[in-house]
TrEMBL record:
Belongs to the DEAD box helicase family. The chain holds residues 1 to 214 of 483 of the full protein. This is ATP-dependent RNA helicase RhlE. Residues 2-30 form the DEAD-box RNA helicase Q domain. Residues 33-207 form the Helicase ATP-binding domain. A motif (Q motif) lies at residues 2-30. The lineage of its organism: Bacteria, Bacillati, Actinomycetota, Acidimicrobiia, Acidimicrobiales.
Length: 214
């Protein structure tokens, strides 16, 4: 049976997952986490409820625990504010309380105070989860520095496309290093998402699953 540790997940993280009732990776987690930890580009198609959030959050957490730069190293792009806060909350559940110097995450989204988000960024964070519009707003105001970004996640790429967010996503990608790792998660694949994959990802490993957690 596949375990998180057999995929290369550090024991303090897999222990934390077990404490949260997750001792076995879901199918999409089992086929993506190892490659994600190794920095490969990945496109993962898997239905709602298949566990895509942890498939990218576990590698992000593990990889950013090693680096302590002055600006974020991982950027997660999501289509809605609800998803941004949800991803932030799931990330927080992975943190083990007493460990000093734990990675920090800021959620950046529209319809909410920009001052508060700027304050979070100024304090220093390793991970940013953002909706494209507000992120570009903060980039234009020079309130966020993307030069240390090593990994970009595009979550719910199909919904991003439906909502017309692919142009801002491409604009954001163009402001990050060309040798970054890019991972794209989606329930379905349509033409616009395919174009983004072809133009902005480097030889990604493709995965597709059908099973659901619930
Ligand atoms: P998706 O983004 O693919 O729609 P989520 O990442 O939101 O799915 O996960 C759906 C549910 O599955 C969440 O409630 C999450 O806590 C649960 N889950 C994720 N991974 C596991 C796991 N390895 N074992 C048990 N439950 C899990
Ligand atoms: Mg999801």
């Amino acid at each position: 049976m596949t375990t998180f540790e057999s995929l290369g997940v550090a024991s303090h993280i897999s222990n934390r997952l077990s404490e949260n009732g997750m001792s076995t990776p879901t199918e999409i987690q089992a086929i993506t986490i190892k490659d994600a930890l190794e920095g490969k580009d990945i496109c993962a198609m898997a239905g709602t409820g298949s566990g895509k959030t942890l498939a990218f959050l576990i590698p992000i957490l593990q990889n950013c625990e090693q680096a302590k730069p002055m600006s974020p190293t991982a950027l997660i792009l999501v289509p809605t504010r609800e998803l941004a806060t949800q991803v932030r909350d799931v990330f927080m559940t992975l943190l083990t309380q007493p460990r000093k110097g734990q990675p920090r995450i800021a959620a950046i989204y529209g319809g909410s105070s920009m001052e508060r988000q700027i304050r979070d960024l100024t304090r220093g964070v390793e991970v940013v989860v953002a909706t494209p519009g507000r992120l570009i707003d903060l980039m234009d105001r020079r309130r966020i520095n993307l030069e240390n970004i090593k990994t970009v996640i595009i979550d719910e790429a199909d919904r991003m496309a439906d909502m017309g967010f692919l142009p801002p996503v491409v604009e954001i990608l163009s402001k990050t290093a060309a040798d970054r790792q890019t991972m794209l998660f989606s329930a379905t694949l349509d033409g616009d998402v395919e174009t983004l994959i072809k133009r902005h990802m480097s030889d990604p490993i493709r995965h597709e699953t059908t099973t659901k957690v619930r």
